[in-house]
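Render this sequence as a predicted structure.
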Amino acid sequence: MDTPIYATGAAARLRSQWDRDEGLGQNHMAVKFLGQDYESLKAQCLRSGKLFEDNIFPATASALGFNELGPRSAKTSGVRWMRPTEFCNRPQFILDGATRTDICQGSLGDCWLLAAIASLTLNDTLLHRVVPHGQSFDQGYAGIFHFQFWQFGEWMDVVIDDRLPVKDKKLLFVHSVEGTEFWSALLEKAYAKLCGCYEALSGGSTSEGFEDFTGGVTEMFDLDKAPRDLYSIISRATERGSLLGCSIDISNTRDMEAVTFKKLVKGHAYSVTGVEEVVYRGNPTKLVRIRNPWGEIEWTGAWSDNSREWDSVDRSVRGRLQNRSEDGEFWMSFSDFLREFTRLEICNLTADALQNSQLKKWSSSLYQGEWRTGSTAGGCRNNAATFWLNPQFKIALKHPDAPGLSECSFLVALMQKDRRKKKREGKDMETIGFAIYEVPDEFVGRSGVHLKRDFFLTHGSRARSELFINLREVSSRFQLPAGEYIIVPSTFEPHKEADFVLRVFSEKPANSEELDDQVAAILPEEKPIDPSQIDDAFKSLFRQLAGPDMEISITELQTILNRIISKHKDLKTDGFSKEACRSMINLMDKDGSGKLGLAEFHVLWEKIKRYLTLFRTYDVDKSGTMSSYEMRMALESAGFKLNNQLFQLIILRYTEADMALDFDNFVTCLVRLEAMFSVFKSMDTDGDNVVTFNFSQWITLTMFT
């Protein structure tokens, strides 16, 4: 019988990267969310004659929420899960095309998401990347549907069944005006599954939905400081299928969803669905079309559905634009828009659409990263001791925006991952941002360099994100002279854990890369020593320790080291384990006896003395333990250059609960590193940094090194 082999975290990560290099995660080859394959599940249902039931996201209270939509909430009392075929005579997936009126908000605070969906309906190409063709309640219906969302650098295909939460014979959440069209309700359910439950969708920024439907990048505009050409920017953005949202900021929680005198809702997400310039009483007048995802409550000021301004517009224009129905969509003048709303979000599918009327692709790069306590979570620049530990990324700007100019335009977008899923655990967004530094002359053109603490202590940033803020994404546009720059993304406080995606878009082609030390070891050469060169005092000590066989075993080494270390009261230690002593003997044992002779023990003794000096040197705060950032400096001083991933593994393996290393773990780590480098070097006979193993050699090496 075959035995399944389960990949370790590191192996799984490598395997995943290989798959993505082959195209997995692109829209045409989306990752199957939670391993569910739509086509095979549907075929299975059709063969069995049973409608699909999704056991991974079951139709139970847990799918609704955990607090306001929890099992004891009044909002969820009396909720039943029903298929559209059970409460609607002739349900349709999409009827006469997907339109903005198919999206009316229910009992969930996800207006931000619905505003994004409404904008999506304005571009069929974008819509059908999210809502794949060929789905219906007619031929081939099996109670199963699927949708695709962009998530942190890759597209996910999410499968759901069509059991929807219903209360009083009405959909609890999003619904269409007609009540017979269900694509938007099913899309909302798929997104809820992606985020863990429906309640996880409560509250957010429209830009989040925009990006998850397109993979685009969002920029925000404060309408109090609107650029002079904002109307032109909006016009070009709508022409190119960019998604736009707007909102009115609130000053306190009492203002949330408060309705103004002219029927605008504060703290509520609207979609911008069009712009138009009309002639009004002989003067050109700029208008903006806006939609409230509630499907009702519309602006009652100038240019609203029944306002007198329309009477002074050409009849054909009025017939084309004016809509008197209470569908949540309305026109208003651009000047009123700037006065009434406070924020505009534009998701650019091609970010240069804001500045150039000719469609061009920006050069873009995407990097996955992580902040981990003790290794890469260094916090912002206020934390001088740890800031340098954060991941670092280099961008080389070589081509100015135009001939004769030195400036290069680029955009940096930093996004934290999976925070909605963590809402159930009571975790919210981390406060994030980034700083940009010019690469010092000595490192220009070099890879494999992770800048250290001294650099950041002596160099100021050239640019930075406008704010450190607890949003999913922070993005800013910059213009800097041609050159090489380092982007350092971070949380505001150190030791905050999160995964992130960093995206860099540049006006002209630009090279970018993650900066990390190239793994290497420059170790002091250990010359063979003849027993005659060892002084008598050490020989006498060895005879006492080794016993009659004149060799030191694992148990004897453990006793010796723990007796010695106990005399150093300034060091914190739990004592050397048998495993640690076995690693030391494996490193020093040249004759394969599993024990140390006089010469071998002498070399180890000198090595431990060197490690002790090193430990005391880099235990800067004299705590008797080593913090993670002290450890990274100590490793480099010992001759080891390690990348972030390896350093993170070391911190996970060798630190105590408080993320500090005591002396025995410090020595064990250095010994193991030295052993692994030495073994590899001895096997890399041609010096090409590649060694080939068969399985037997591999398992022998990993088990006994």
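Summary. The first helix runs from residue 9 to 21. Residues 441 and 554 are 50 Å apart (CA to CA).
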